[in-house]
Amino acid sequence: MTYRSGRHFLQIPGPTNVPDRVLRAIDMPTMDHRGPEFGKLGLEILAGLREVFQSRQAVIIYPASGTGAWEAALVNTLSPGDRVLMFETGQFATLWSKMAGRLGLTVEIVPTDWRRGVDPALVEAKLKEDREHTIRAVCVVHNETSTGVTSRIAAVRAAIDAAGHPALYMVDTISSLASIDYRHDEWGVDVTVAGSQKGLMLPPGLSFNCVGDKALAAAKSARLPKSYWSWDEMLASNKTGYFPYTPATNLLYGLREALAMLREEGLQNVFTRHARHAEATRRAVRAWGLEVLCANPTEYSNSLTAVMMPQGHDADALRKIILEAYDMSLGTGLGQLAGKIFRIGHLGDFNDLALAGTLAGVEMGLTLAGVPHQKGGVQAAMDYLGECARGGAARKAA
Ligand SMILES: Cc1ncc(COP(=O)(O)O)c(C=O)c1O
Questions:
Q1: Which residue owns the Cα nearest ligand 1 atom 16?
Q2: Among 54, 56, 233, 365, which is most exposed with the fewest C-beta within 10 angstroms?
Q3: Contact between residue 106 and residue 74 where contact means Cβ atoms under 8 Å apart
Q4: What is the mean pLDDT of the chain?
Q5: Predicted confidence (pLDDT) per residue in 217-256, tens digit
Q6: Distance CA 345, CA 176 (A)
Q7: 148 pocket-lining for ligand 1 (C-beta < 6 Å)
Q8: 80 preceded by cis ω (within 30°)?
Q9: 135 and 84 Cβ atoms separated by less than 8 Å
Q10: Whether the CB of 18 sits within 6 Å of ligand 1
Q11: Mutate to test the pocket of ligand 1, among 10, 16, 67 (most ligand atoms within 8 A of CB)
Q12: Atom of ligand 1 nearest to the CA of 70
């Protein structure tokens, strides 16, 4: 059997389901990226992205996955041997720190149990210890996609300020941008890293840096080698909407459409929708008698929920059964969480019924796989979604 009727449920926490409007926008003839039309496209997209970053500062677009934008953030601002403070909140924070080490930076990594976010008090303490100000950057993953934990970016900013420390502040928003409220300017972030394949509803292949003035100033004296990732040539070409090398033209068509869709829905409504789906998912998990990995309720992720398996049951066996029986992909446990958790992605182009279908797939899969649980998770989620819909209807009527 090769054809499976109905739509595959891609409920991993990115890449996410690409909406038809975006797919249709991508499916257009590639244009001359040095021609007159392209400059307009480039300028429109750069302005639209600034709205999503909630920033007035420079945005850079790379034809690369998110990992490229991590590298760009580091090599444009830092020099060999510079100290960077990082927090091992999960697999992605770990990978970013390994990259920093490979680039020749001196990484100070603060461990966690992979169940909570960055502790702002610890940031303040670490920076206060550094009286000589040798730490050049503090790097934080906003939403740790491997654990479903969202660090408090504004509180970390306040901690850096309370320590009176001049380090640059870099934040990875690869699985939070356009899903969870994020404010580059207001939260005093110097470099934000983002990717196309999650909240922005695009296929993988684009990534971004949003760059503040302090980071641009640091770039003037940064000595790590760079060429492809260099901000200066990019910023010079971007002034007129062009790029120094061939951009991913068709993905940019898709990005223009995705930005229009986010504007039509309204960014605040997008955040509220993600919060609603996350809460409904957690209610389902609790009703099943299972545990959410994130240990701190103020750090629950609105993009995804990581669910712990009961002792003696393998998360990947459950995922395999769900894929085969119900044509739904769920996120695997990464690194030290392999086999112990599965992750439900509820970000991107998503609605209440898609969530209900997702949770039904999980509940049926738990039964099929013989994983001990209680019934009623989907019902608990539906009850909550119903309450929200009634609240919304009442507000509209008032
Ligand atoms: C938080 C976070 N950072 C970084 C990455 C790496 O991005 P990419 O796989 O697009 O290179 C991911 C990928 O899922 C991620 O979720």
A1: 145
A2: 56
A3: no
A4: 97
A5: 999 999 999 999 999 999 999 999 999 999 999 999 999 9
A6: 12
A7: no
A8: no
A9: yes
A10: no
A11: 67
A12: 4
Distance CA 363, CA 357 (A): 10
Report pLDDT for 1: 64
**What is d(CA 90, CA 341) in angstroms, rounded to the nearest whole number?**
13
Is any atom of ligand 1 closer than 6 Å to the C-beta of 92?
Answer: yes
Dist CA 110 CA 94 (whole Å):
10
CA-based R_g, the chain, Å: 21
CB 91 within 8 A of CB 236: no
What's the residue count for the chain? 398
- CA dist 277 and 378 (Å) reads 12
* Amino acid code (one letter) for 268: Q
Q: Taking the alpha carbons of 121, 126, 131, 135 in that order, is the dihedral positive or negative?
A: negative
Mutation probe of ligand 1 site: the residue of 145, 153, 229 with most atoms within 8 A of C-beta: 145
Residue ranges in the chain whose pLDDT is less than 50: none
Q: Residue 176 Cα, ligand 1 centroid: separation in angstroms?
A: 11
The CB of 54 under 6 Å from ligand 1? The reply is no
Any atom of ligand 1 within 6 Å of the Cβ of 174: yes
User: 261 C-alpha vs ligand 1 centroid, how far in Å?
Assistant: 23
pTM for the whole structure: 0.98
Q: Determine whether the shortest distance from the Cβ of 67 to ligand 1 is under 6 A.
A: yes
Alpha carbon of 34 to ligand 1 centroid (Å)? 30
Q: Where are the beta strands (DSSP E) in the chain?
A: 9-11, 58-62, 83-88, 106-111, 135-141, 143-144, 149-150, 168-172, 191-195, 207-211, 291-292, 304-308, 328-330, 341-345
> Taking every pair of C-alpha atoms in the chain, what is the biggest distance, in angstroms?
66
Three-state secondary-structure class, residue 244: coil
What is the distance in A from the centroid of ligand 1 to the CA of 66? 5
Q: For residue 306, what are its two tokens?
A: 């990581």
Tokens of 348: 């991107």
Question: For helices 315-326 and 352-368, what crossing angle results, to 10°?
Answer: 120
| Residue whose token pair is 């699985």 | 175
Asked if residue 195 has its Cβ within 6 Å of ligand 1, the reply is yes
pLDDT tens digits, residue range 336-382? 999 999 999 999 999 999 999 999 999 999 999 999 999 999 999 99
Q: In angstroms, what CA-CA distances link 117 with 47, 142, 383?
A: 31, 8, 30
